Amino acid sequence: MNTKPGIIGTKLGMTQLYKDDGTVQRVTVLDMSDVVVAGKRTKEKDGYVAIVFGLRDAKEKHLAKAQSGAFKKNNVAPKRVLREIRCTEEFAAKFEVGAKPALTDIFEVGQVVDTQGITRGRGFSGVVRRWSFAGFVQTHGTHEYRRHGGSIGTNMTPGRTLPNIKMPGQYGNEQVSVLNLKVARIDAEKGLLLVEGGIPGPKNHVVTIRQAVKSKIRKQR
């Protein structure tokens, strides 16, 4: 189980930064200004340790009674989005329920992080868009097969279409993780985190960002 420190936020979009040597750094801007600690999970009560982060205010009439009661018990304003982040007991002890977490307590500039989000849904798509197929030959005799996928099976053995053949179908709207991105800048006052590279999901979408679990540590010679 991944217990690396992390947080949720809203993807605002992409921009670019200029380094001291003049090179351009493409970054994704994440907004954590309205994230609060909505609750905690303890080993004694729940069997595991986690922090519940809340995002975006919600009206009480849109919540179930159990949800509304949990917010009132923790003295936290109702939130529309809740995410649990598994962590260690030492990390969970840094934050109080109802308080806004400080980004500097979780990340630092130059740190390698993992990001996770839901990609944009593209509906039912063909093989050219979904799998980047080249399509059929574009000659004067070609009819109706310019963007087709071609053969999907065999003749006699095994005599059926095998599983996992690339075909048209639902494209996008799935959870995707991008690993080993670097933190480019932290704006603690505005609650903004700038991460180098692209993060899955459209603008104003909720994403999860955690410290990397597969970052390569180079051996110093």
Alpha carbon gyration radius: 23 Å
CATH architecture term of the largest domain: Beta Barrel
| Arithmetic mean of pLDDT | 91
Helix content: 10-25%
Q: In the CATH scheme, what's the topology name of the largest domain? A: Elongation Factor Tu (Ef-tu), domain 3
What overall geometry do the principal axes of the alpha carbons give? globular
Low-confidence stretches: none
Structure notes:
A hairpin with a 5-residue loop joins strand 1 (6-18) and strand 2. By secondary structure, the chain is mostly beta strands. It has helices spanning 43-46, 65-74, 89-92, 127-131; strands at residues 6-18, 24-31, 36-41, 50-57, 79-86, 112-118, 124-125, 169-170, 175-187, 192-196, 206-211. It has three domains: 1-34 and 101-121 and 172-221, Elongation Factor Tu (Ef-tu), domain 3 (Beta Barrel); 36-99, Double Stranded RNA Binding Domain, CATH 3.30.160; 124-168, no CATH class. It has a six-stranded antiparallel beta barrel with strand order 1-2-10-9-6-11. The protein contains four helices and eleven strands, in the order E-E-E-H-E-H-E-H-E-E-H-E-E-E-E. 10% of the residues lie in helices and 35% in strands. It starts with 5 loop residues before the first strand and ends in a 10-residue tail after the last strand.
